[in-house]
Amino acid sequence: MADAARALDPQAAEPMLTIADLQAWYGESHVLHGVNVDVYPGEVVTLLGRNGAGKSTTLKSVMGIVPRRQGSIRIEGEETIHKRPYRIARCGVAFCPEDRGIYATLSVAENLELPPQVREGGLTTDEVLTLFPNLRGRLRSAGTNLSGGEQQMLAIGRILRTGARLLLLDEPTEGLAPSIVSQIGDTIRSLKEQGYTILLVEQNVRFAMTVADRHFVLDQGQVVETHDKTSFADNFDALMARLGV
Ligand SMILES: Nc1ncnc2c1ncn2[C@@H]1O[C@H](COP(=O)(O)OP(=O)(O)OP(=O)(O)O)[C@@H](O)[C@H]1O
């Protein structure tokens, strides 16, 4: 049950995102075999699992950028499984890829201002810089001259400008120093407080514990366990073993 989301908004009976029996293929390779995930408004939910379990493919399927998918993906009740990515973006969804997608030949300011606004309510550049003050002095630097942590903040800041309210974050802490991981955690908690809904792929289980309301564990393209904060903590050692951590 999404108690946290309901506490935030007691009217929120409908999930923000419902993934049902999702199948996905890359060419002949069938990689998702019926994934079921729901995310309520204002929740932070993680997808956990070993390498190759299908976590990134699930996020990319929501964004419509996996070539062949089948099943149902509803965003605020609207079916999107057959929509093109630009139409899915207009439903208020944004994806932050694992490689962060920063353009080397563009400045930080240009990277930030690149994506179009898809909905009302996107942050202004100044609001993004208030959220990530480190970027303020780097606006004219080439995007790839930033540290890994700054690039991640730029990548998150960029999608906040679009007006999206459902954020898909693929391994935002990967390769970052512990102090930066902690800053990313603060950012995610702050976004949750502002009412954003976040579906997050994470390899860092301890980090996931500190930010998420619920967790879905994937294995071989299927959800094999679902946990809330309490059951996650109670099963922590078994989960670490299952995830090979
Ligand atoms: N573009 C692609 N073309 C072909 N196969 C792919 C492609 N991307 C992923 N795969 C395969 O799909 C399966 C699921 O990959 P996916 O990236 O979704 O896993 P993951 O759980 O996110 O793991 P990782 O943390 O390693 O990215 C894997 O077997 C992977 O090799």
Provide structural commentary.
Belongs to the ABC transporter superfamily. Pfam families: ABC_tran. Keywords: Amino-acid transport, ATP-binding, Nucleotide-binding, Transport. Residues 17-245 form the ABC transporter domain. By secondary structure, the chain is α/β, with parallel strands linked by helices. The protein has two domains: 3-92 and 165-243, Rossmann fold, CATH 3.40.50; 99-161, no CATH class. It is 34% helix and 26% strand. It has ten helices and ten strands. Strands 6-7-8-3-9-10 form a six-stranded mixed sheet, with helices on both faces. The protein has a four-stranded antiparallel sheet with strand order 2-1-4-5, covered by helices on one side. Strand 9 (214-219) and strand 10 form a beta hairpin. The relative contact order is 0.18. The model has no long low-confidence stretch (mean pLDDT 92). It binds adenosine-5'-triphosphate. Adenosine-5'-triphosphate binds at residues 26, 29, 31, 49, 51-57.
